[in-house]
Amino acid sequence: MEYRGGFSIFIAMDLTLDNNVPELLSPKVDVIFKMLFGDKRNKDLTIKFISAVLGYKDGKIKNITFLNTQLKQETIKDKLEILDVKVELSSGEFVDIEMQARSHPDIRERITYYGSNMITEQIGKKGKYSLLKPVKSIVVTDFDSVKESKKCHTIFQMLEKDEHFRFNDLEEIHILNLKKLPQLRDKSLSGWLEFINSENKEEFMRVAKRNPTLRKAVNALSVISSDKKARMLYEARLKAWRDEQSRLEDAETRGEDRVLDLVAKGYSYERIRATLRNG
């Protein structure tokens, strides 16, 4: 599978020939995660991953349709949000898949916003509340986003406070914490998370030996990793992260209390700069 201008062409690779496999790019970097799970030519891998997270048996998800990942703006002033992967299942359910490698103070609010937006978008298409379909949010994090739990896989639903029955099935949030992977007992899901969490070729090769599906995932990643454009996007993303971290560390070193306060509130570098510029 070679990536050219946003399209992919499959080329078979033999992963037993380890010397021919390039150093693989990390799926924890969102641009690579999206190339892998957001490409319709990897549809079967995306279906398998979603099924493992949601606990669906093989064959329950007959098909998926990849959707525009740009969330609808109600007004011109609304912030433009772009999801990593957004699909509609053959059952009519919607799934948003996100990879979050860096900690965000407002991560929970952001996840809630994404899911709610995907529900409200349906009103414009279907016009009736009774026709609304469930939205499942799957968020993989490389930081502890749910400090209240030791679990790797936490699931959130809207429940009655005391009796714990569900209000409805419209929203469900799955948080997958890579830092707590050793706590996960679900072998099907742990294989996928080990794949996403792998740091070098040797780790990816070990994951590839677990089953044919993960072998195919590693194969697809190796093809992406061989593409010059993908590597450029990967390096640009890492550089942006490093630059932002460096700027924030420099501000901390210089003791700029106001900047630190804005950082603590979750402001991005661009927003901090604009705030300081405007006094």
Short note summarizing the structure:
This protein has helices at 30-37, 43-54, 107-126, 187-197, 201-208, 212-225, 228-253, 257-264, 269-277, and strands at residues 2-4, 7-9, 64-66, 85-89, 94-100, 135-141, 153-156, 171-177.
Describe this structure in words.
With 279 residues, the protein is α/β, with parallel strands linked by helices. It folds into 2 domains: 19-226; 228-279, no CATH class. It contains 9 helices and 8 strands. Strands 3-4-5-6-8-7 form a 6-stranded mixed sheet, sandwiched between helices. Strands 1-2 form a two-stranded antiparallel sheet. Helix 3 links the parallel strand 5 and strand 6 (135-141). Helix 1 (30-37) runs antiparallel to helix 7 and helix 5 (201-208) packs antiparallel against helix 6. The longest helix is centred in the C-terminal third of the chain and has 26 residues, at 228-253. It is globular. It starts with a strand and ends with a helix.
